[in-house]
Design brief:
mainly alpha
């Protein structure tokens, strides 16, 4: 019996729960997060998305067959043609212009996580990079689902309800399940030693995601 994505979250259980259930997430769900903290997060998340696109461009370069090439290309195209545009529109609703986004300084937490992902992809293979990205793609879907299961979460009169809606959407949830299926297919054949390497990547990336939430709360650069 091979490994699955759930095995990564199990071996990193404490870090994974600290990420999914972070104070930033809890305050967002309860509608009590400081607006400036959310704006700061939104701006840095725009920079993260740009580097996320670079990671998919690297995935195209690292592809060994047409299926992998198409997978990387579709991910890149979705981020550049759809997600970044939607993010710009969403930021505009929070008083952040596209000009503001174009001149942002990168926070240390943004630098740390994005460069870690790119370095992991450069050093390793496609599986290494997808595992490094999984806390973002899979994590945001799980966060939306976790928030919807909590008694403290408000959906009416919550300024952040639209954020939750983005990640609970059928489209995003399907993208999350597709990524888990992609990971499961490749994890089932790895050795115990290789799984330990991937678990280290996953744990490090999850810890960097925790720092990203904390950056938002602290308004840190």
């Amino acid at each position: 019996m091979g490994y699955r994505f759930d095995d990564l979250t199990k071996v990193c259980h404490d870090d994974w729960r600290n990420y999914i259930e972070h104070d930033f997430v809890r305050q967002l769900g309860a509608g009590i997060l400081e607006p400036d903290a959310f704006r700061h997060y939104l701006q840095q998340d725009y920079l993260f998305l740009m580097h996320f696109a670079r990671a998919y461009a690297l995935a195209v370069y690292k592809s060994r067959n047409m299926a992998e090439l198409r997978h990387g290309f579709e991910g890149l195209k979705t981020i550049v043609d759809v997600e970044l545009g939607l993010h710009v529109d969403y930021c505009r609703g929070w008083g952040i212009s596209e000009k503001d986004l174009a001149t942002l300084p990168e926070a240390k937490a943004t630098l740390a996580y994005t460069r870690y992902v790119l370095d992991t992809g450069n050093r390793g293979d496609l599986l290494d990079m997808h595992v490094a990205l999984a806390p973002c793609l899979v994590g945001y879907g799980e966060i939306a689902n976790w928030l919807n299961a909590q008694a403290f979460t408000l959906r009416d009169d919550n300024p952040y309800s639209a954020w939750i809606a983005m990640y609970e959407s059928a489209e995003f949830q399907q993208a999350m399940q597709d990524e888990i299926a992609w990971l499961n297919k490749r994890l089932e054949d790895v050795t115990a030693a290789r799984f330990d390497e991937l678990a280290t990547i996953f744990r490090d990336a999850t810890r960097l995601e925790i720092d990203f939430w904390q950056m938002g709360l602290d308004l840190a650069l």
